[in-house]
Every structure is written in C-alpha cells, then in structure tokens.
Amino acid sequence: MLALLSDQPLLAALSALLGLGAIFGALLGFAAIRFRVEGNPISDQINAILPQTQCGQCGYPGCRPYSEAIADGDAINKCPPGGEETIQALADLLDVEPQPLDAEHGIEKEPVVAWIREDECIGCTKCIQACPVDAILGAAKVMHTVIADECTGCDLCIEPCPVDCIDLIPRKEGIGFWHWPLPEDRAPRFDIIATDTLARDAA
Amino acid sequence: MRQIHDIHGGIHPPERKALSRPGELEPAPLPPVLVLPLRQHLGVPALPIVNVGDRVLGGQTIAEAQGVMSVPVHAPTSGTVTAIEARSIAHASGLQDQCIVIETDGQHEWLSFTGITEWRALDAAALVEHVRAAGVAGMGGAGFPTAVKLNPGPTRPIETLLVNGTECEPYITADDTLMQCQADELIEGAQILAHIVSAESILIGIEDNKPDAIASVEAAIARSGAEIELATFPTKYPSGGEKQIIEILTGHQVPSGGIPADIGLVCVNPGTAVAAKRAIIDGVPLTHRIVTLTGEALASPQNVTACLGTPITALLTHAGLNAAPQQRIIHGGPMMGFAVSDLNAPITKITNCLLAPTPTELPLPEPAKPCIRCGHCAEACPASLLPQQLYWYARAKDQEQLAEHRLFDCIECGACAYVCPSQIPLVQYYRAAKGQIRDSEQEKRRSDNSRERFEARQVRLETEAAEREAKRAARKAAAQSKAAEDGADPIQAAIERAKARKAEQASEPEQTP
Ligand code: SF4
Ligand code: SF4
Ligand code: SF4
Ligand code: SF4
Question: To which H or E segment does residue B161 belong?
C-alpha cells in the first residue's frame, strides 16, 4: 500500500486530502453536537435588543414571538416602543438597511407607567390578569397598585379595567432624568460656556 | 522637594482672578426668603422633615438624607417654612426641583451645638457619621457626598489625603479666599479627614498663581506643628481636575474608570475640609459657603459668605449688577459653568462662582463651523483623548466607538472647545453622549428585568394550565373508575337524569293556572 502511494504522488495527495477532510468533518460534526446552542441564537440576540414592553403593537403576542418572526425574515420596523434606536440596533445586528418605523403599528412615544387611582379601584383583578410582567399587586375586592419599577407601560391593563381607573403617566419626568441634548437637537445656543469666544487676548 | 510632573495638553486662558479681589471676605446680607433645594449634591434628594408653617432655628435639620448617596439639608438661620414645592434652581436644564422655602426673621436664633475636641479618640465610622449628619458634600463643583468619599472600603488602603487648592478655572477665587481667610480651619479639617481615612500623609497642592494663599497655608501649617506637605506647581488649565492634580503631584495616573482611592489617594476641595472641621470640632452643619461674585457687569466684584438658599439675584444686586439687555449670568466659571435661566434660583452647596460678564467680555458664541481636522483639540486635551473623533461619534450616536475612545474619561473641562478654531461646542456633544449612554444602560437594565418577569410569568401560566389539565384528567379517570365499579354507564345515567328533569319542567305550567 505504502509502496503504491509513494509510486503515485497524485494518489498520495488525493488520499491525504480525503483523510484530512474525513477527520475534520468528524470533528466538526462532534463539535456541533457537543457544543450545541439551545434555541435559536439569532432570535435570542434580537430579543435582547427589543424593549420588552410586551405590548403586542408589533402584531405578535410579545417581544419573543416578534424576535422569532424577525429571525424568519419579518420587517424590523414594527416595534413602536423601541423606536429608531431599536431599529438601528437591529439593522446593525442583522446587517441590513434601517427603515423608518412602520406607522401602521404606532408611533414612538415618551415612556409611561401605569398608575391606578386607588380610591376608585374596585378590586376586580382584571388588570392583574392582563399584565404581562406581573407588575400589579392586589387581590380580589381590595385596592390594586402598580409597581412602577416593573411596569413597562404596555397599556394592556387599561382596556380591561371596568371603572377606567388606570392612567398612563410619563415615566421620565423631572430633573433626575434630564441630560444635555446634542447641540444640533436644540434651538440657538445661549448657554454653552466653554465654547464662547472668550476674549482670548483681553486681560 | 517633591517632583512636579506635567500633564498632557492644557491651555492658558486669561485668568481674570484679580477682578474679585481674592483674600477679602464679607458676609452677604441676609435675604428675606431662602430657597433650599432638596438636592444640592450628586445623588438622591433629601426628604423634608418639616411642615409648612413650622418655625425653624438656624442649624436645624429640615430634610433628612435618604440612603447612602444622599445628604441632609439644614436651615441657615431662624425663620418660618412657607412652602415645600418645586422652584427654579440653578441647573443647566432650566427645570424646577423640590425646595424648602424659609421666610427669615432676622433673629439669628440657632440651635446650640457641641463639638468634639477629642476627635482622635473616635473611630472613623463615628466621625463619618458626624460628617454625614452635617450635610457635607464636595464643595468644588460636583457635590459628591463627602461621607461616601471617606469610605473607600477595606480593599483600597489610603496613603495620602490630598487637598486640591488648584482652583484653575478663570475668574473663580472662592478657594483662594478660603485658603487665605480660613487656613487654620483648613489644616485642622485636613487632619481630621486624614485620620478618618487612615492616611499616613497630608498633601496640599496649590497653583503658583496664588502666592497669598500659599503664604497663608504655609504659616498655618507651621502654627499647627503638624507634618503636612505643601506643593506648588505651575499654572495651567485644567490642572485642578482630580485626575490631573494627582498626576502632577505623584506622577501616577488614576486608572480609566477608576477613582483616586484605587491608587491610595482621597482628594478633597479646601472648602470641604473646612466644612468637615466645622462639622466635627464645632458640631455645626454646612449652611453657608463662600461664593465669588465677579464679571465686569458688577460694580463691586467680591467674595462673600452667603447662606445656602440665597437667591442669585440678591447676591448680584448686592455686588451692584448693572445688567445689559439679555444679560447672561453664569453659574460656575467660564469654562465649565452654565447659564442660569431664572435669577430667582438659589445658590447651593456647589455654587462657587456667579459670573456676570459684559457682552464684550464674554461674547455670545458664533455659529459652529465644520471641523477642519486641525487636531488642536487633541493637543489641548488633558486626558489625552481624541476630541475630534469623539465629536464625530457623538454625532453619529455610535456608543461602541465612544466607549472605545474613552468618552467617560473626559472631564468636560472645555479645553478642546476653547482651542477649536471652528467654535464647535464640543463639550456639549460629550455631555449629551454621556447622558444618552447612561440612559440606554438604564433602559437595558429595565428591559432585561421585564424579559425575566415576562418569562417567569409564561412559565407560571404554563404550569397552572398543566396543573388544571392534570386535575381534569384525574377527575375524569376517577369518574370512569367509579362508573366501572357501579357497573353503569355514567353518560347514560346523566342523560336519563336530564330527561327526568325535562319531563318535570314540562308538567309544571299545567299546574299553575
Ligand atoms: S411592539 Fe411591543 S411586544 Fe412587539 S416587540 Fe415592541 S415592545 Fe415587544
Ligand atoms: S401595569 Fe399595565 S401598563 Fe404596566 S406592564 Fe402591567 S399591564 Fe402593562
Ligand atoms: S479643534 Fe475643532 S476643528 Fe480642529 S480638529 Fe478639533 S474639532 Fe476639528
Ligand atoms: S472636554 Fe473632554 S475631550 Fe475636551 S479637552 Fe477636556 S477632557 Fe479632553
């Protein structure tokens, strides 16, 4: 056999290549089984970008189903709570062109949280059943309250309330949430100091 | 002699410090109304513990700290609480924030305080508690709660307490004045703080453009007999940045994203050291501070000791403001300050300077022109960053590249914007970008939390459904096995029962007439 190979260099090269191919194929096959990733990694990555408001405005019952749909080729511009920033992040991840938000599904709004007017609440528990993230505390016939830190502002509890005692109030109001805007996002610059033409040769 | 190191970049803007006559200090007149914001520091606002209508005494705690990253507020004199509501404050946003409003009565009635002379006998924790209760927050501009700074944790042993007397920003002379007028208190305060953080040495750094402050601190050190090192170094903006002065005096760099304690230093402002001395030795809370009133629009620029909560307009009137139309008033200095939109806003623990420039002194900025990639900004940057790159990435909102180019090492000193020939408001881009990144990080934490809760709920709903299904199956099985025992078909039995009921109902109407 060896003698035959050394006589036929072409055959030797071929069999070496074949052998290597077989070995690496087996290795790859083994690795695929041994290091298998649970679930669909792309849809997981997409889901990590979606805002998790779980509002269903995209037309799917929650962010995960929409992330799976995107992984299967659905458009990336159907999530109003995520808005432009999420679309940009999805476009970067999937290496596609970002598109403007599809207005059919809603427009981007300031984030809100639900607030129950507690003296009007009749304790029907309907909102608890609707809340996708268990952000409402309460039991039958006692007043309910929203845990503001957990509420995503998805709006799903508003409709079921028979006495209309739930409001959506802005989540990011007040000085603690303010930060400087980009200069181009705002009207004339009267308040930037460091950049003033300081009388550089005065004094 | 300590070796002085140079830092990268830096600029030499006109200093204009003599204007406010450093070294002379007068009390400001007591205004009829004090407005005390609940957040005069970095962190969580304090919680009011007085009610509208209460009479308060000087030094009384009127709002308590809420948690560790918070600082209490005290009444600077006696008077009556007339409101607890949102008022204009000195903030770049121009927004309002919760304040306690006190109508002063001019009686100057104070609580009596007992200080601690034997502070060396107390342990750090007890002293830190006094500093916290006295409402001390960093007085250099950021307002970081001092009690938190004094607690670097056991993993960060402290070698040196550094008092940062640089005050490198043009116009401002509040620290200069404090070092001239209160040097003995400064030395005592530094010794207390060094004791608290178990620092072996005390180092005071002063820029060489303040000879009077240097002489006065030198004399105070000699009087105290303590072993304290005084280092002077050449004037350059921004040598007073915490990381910059540390590099100048030690040659070591604070790691990116780290704090001075990581390399064994705690760095405080002279005003903070004096406030700590008063908190411990006199037992007095922080209710006043030194403010520089300066700018050519003032008839008599000066330094004053003012009650916290004094409206800005009261101080400017005191200094003889001759307001031009559209007069700009700047809170802080010309490099890092911001314009105040409402002059009824009060001064706070972080107000070191109020600047009222004439339009020729500090003209309004011209519109920005495109970047010409001259690279001057990178030469000026004391943090060795690439300001021009940061500018492009901030505009593109490219958070990855911003992090890559160490945006968070930017100290917002404004040196880059000062030298930029295109007058681009570079610092505002960085501030905006930092805000956006902090925002997205917070949103990310929120959405991760929502995802977990959503998934936990899905699991719960599924288990509940499975349980119901199991119960139903169990009931069905039980019924079947019972029927098998009785030997009758349960369905047949049910049908017969229903038939019987129907027949009964059908016969009923006949009975009623
Ligand atoms: S639209 Fe609502 S449910 Fe759909 S992905 Fe966006 S946040 Fe999630
Ligand atoms: S409380 Fe209402 S708005 Fe908030 S997450 Fe629950 S259902 Fe949505
Ligand atoms: S100094 Fe201004 S113009 Fe020059 S490179 Fe920097 S940003 Fe561009
Ligand atoms: S503002 Fe930031 S980028 Fe500009 S010079 Fe100062 S540290 Fe450097």
Answer: strand B160-165
> Which structural domain, as residue segments, surrounds residue A73?
41-105
Predicted local confidence at residue B110, as pLDDT: 95
* A158 CB-near residues (< 8 Å, 6+ apart): A114, A166, A168
Amino acid symbol at A80: P
Label residue B477 exposed, middle or buried (CB < 10 Å: 0-12, 13-18, 19+).
Answer: exposed
Fold type of domain B368-477? Fumarate Reductase Iron-sulfur Protein; Chain B, domain 2 (1.10.1060)
Q: Are both A91 and A118 inside the same structural domain?
A: no
Closest ligand to residue B451's CA: 1
CATH number attached to the domain at B18-27+117-318: 3.40.50.11540
Two tokens, residue B312: 């800005």
**Coil/strand/helix, residue A145:** strand
In this structure, chain A runs to a length of 203
How many CA atoms are closer than 13 Å to the CA of B55, on its beta-carbon side?
A: 8
Q: Can you tell me the distance from the alpha carbon of B390 to that of B417, in angstroms, rounded to the nearest whole number?
A: 12
pLDDT of B335-380, one tens digit each? 999 999 999 999 999 999 999 999 999 988 889 999 999 999 999 9
Residue B333 dihedral angles phi and psi, to the nearest 5°: -100, 180
> At residue B498, what are phi and psi to the nearest 5 degrees?
-60, -40
**Whether the predicted pLDDT of A7 surpasses 60:** yes
Q: Which residue has a Cα nearest atom 2 of ligand 2?
A: A157
**Contact status, residue B337 vs residue B316, Cβ threshold 8 Å:** no
- Testing ligand 4's pocket by substitution, the residue of B412, B420, B424, B431 carrying the most ligand atoms inside 8 A of its CB is B412
For residue A168, report the phi and psi dihedrals to the nearest 5 degrees.
-105, 120
**Average confidence (pLDDT) over A122-139:** 90
Report the amino acid identity of residue B329.
I
Q: What residue in B sits closest to A62 (Cα-Cα)?
A: B454
Q: From CA B188, how far away is CA B211, in angstroms rounded?
A: 21
Token output for B2: 């300590």
Question: Is A22 within the bounds of a domain?
Answer: no
Q: Which chain A residues contact residue B417 at CB under 8 A?
A: 192, 194-195
Q: Are strands B265-268 and B302-307 parallel, antiparallel or unpaired?
A: unpaired
Tokens coding A59: 């037309």
Residues of chain B with pLDDT under 50: 509-513
Report how far apart the first and last C-alpha atoms of chain A are (Å, whole number). Answer: 96
DSSP per residue, B295-317: STTBSS-EEEEEETT-BHHHHHH
In this predicted model, what pLDDT tens digit does every residue of B72-101 receive, in sequence order? 999 999 999 999 999 999 999 999 999 999
Q: Is the peptide bond before B301 cis (omega within 30 degrees of 0)?
A: no
Residues in contact with B152: Cβ distance below 8 Å, sequence separation at least 6, in sequence order: B158, B197, B259, B261, B266
Opening angle at CA B56, ends B52 and B61, nearest 5: 95
Q: For residue B241, what are its two tokens?
A: 């940045």
